[in-house]
């Protein structure tokens, strides 16, 4: 029996120190989530005993200083890294039980990623960058064209589909990155410092897009950010320090 299988729960009434049961409605839950890099005297605990539940359609900000553990936490929640102890339940399944191929399939179909540096391929147009995940996944051409076009329209770039990244502003490049993250129809979008390389006005426009994605499309958006304007638009904010959540 998996300690973290959501359908079975993980707390026993007879053990008051057991982790809280995982809500059946949560899209992501973590219990005792810990990540240690190195060993012995060189060991650094980046994430410490995190307990959290994230609900469908939530717009969640994880804030804190650089080095507080925000990015490591996102990587663990998304299955990009393995915890030292504890576990993550994603849509009712314990990620520690996934094979590598199952993790890849999950990330391709159920999770979208947006990064601070955009991560666009310079020689591809906006449309081609957005279409690429579908092409890799074997989606037929006609469906790829429709879904990539719809994703670019969603972020307000329907008229810029043929432009390459160097022909786009920083804000437009991040919009393309968001469209690419959404084109596979994920249930969760992870955004690591999505406004970190943008000016404040452009950052607010990106934050608004992320908020609307959660509010209008029901996609769960989890962002790690230093941007207080972005954090202020979220439905919930958690602050980290030294790998753990702290009171604000």
From TrEMBL:
SMART domains: AAA
Keywords on record: ATP-binding, Nucleotide-binding, Transport
Ranges for domain ABC transporter: 28-248
InterPro entries: AAA+_ATPase, ABC_transporter-like_ATP-bd, ABC_transporter-like_CS, ABC_transpr_LolD-like, MacB-like_ATP-bd, P-loop_NTPase
UniProt xrefs under Pfam families: ABC_tran
Sequence intervals crossing the membrane: none
MF terms (GO), sorted A to Z: ATP binding; ATP hydrolysis activity; transmembrane transporter activity
Protein name: Uncharacterized ABC transporter ATP-binding protein MJ1508
